[in-house]
Amino acid sequence: NLMQQSRLETSEAWSAYWLPIFQTLTTQCTNPCRDIRQLAFSAMQRSLLSPEVTLTDAKEWTAIFGRVLFPLIQRLLKPEVFSSDRDGMSEMRVQCASLLCKVFLQYLVLLSGWDGMFDLWVKIIDIMDRLMNSGQGDSLEEAVRENLKNVVLFMASSGYLVPPSQDASKQTLWDETWKRVDRFLPELRSDLASEGLGTRSGTDQVQGEGENGENEQKETAGQTGEVADVVGGGESDQRK
């Protein structure tokens, strides 16, 4: 391909060949013409999910987030862009939210060895927060909820996002994830817990177990008191 044929270093070749293509496509993804917009998005999606994108060092190809997907979503969130075609831009927001999560999951294994993985994940959560609170309505909110849920499930099942009680080295990632997600999707933890995924840290679990133990003790004490009252009442009646 052109990158291999060029005399540029691999990192320079990526910026010289891939980046301009992506940036052109992202510009057209907000074109007021719906047909042009959809064609640009389809081409960008195919390119972003192509294995050839990751043939360079992580510090180069990870620009697909910071210089391609994030700027595109931020542009879609601008009122003047949204108002150019409300229905069409609404759908584009939904598609971009899904694509962001899809790209992240596809390259998660490669990203896990990159120093910028933590900051990238936090940025993705923040972007999803902005989409969720953009005021668009149910379709986008549902897309954000389901896509983020899928990402968290995959990260958990793959051992990337686990409670500190299972892996102390993951505590910062765990704490920051739920601190941010709880702000705009407070019900997500309980949804995941109902599916058998542990979403509480060891401390939370101990506290929960302690509370359950206290409740059980109170119930037992209450039952004992009721029995004593009944017995006491019976003795009083007999004395009478």
From TrEMBL:
Highest taxon of source: Eukaryota
Gly residues bias: start-end ranges: 231-240
The name this protein goes by in its record: GBF1-like tetratricopeptide repeats domain-containing protein
Coiled-coil stretches: none
Natural source organism: Photinus pyralis (Common eastern firefly)
Region annotation Disordered: where it falls in the sequence: 193-240
Residues annotated as domain GBF1-like tetratricopeptide repeats: 13-191
Matches recorded under Pfam families: TPR_28
PANTHER family named in the record: GOLGI-SPECIFIC BREFELDIN A-RESISTANCE GUANINE NUCLEOTIDE EXCHANGE FACTOR 1 (PTHR10663:SF388), GUANYL-NUCLEOTIDE EXCHANGE FACTOR (PTHR10663)
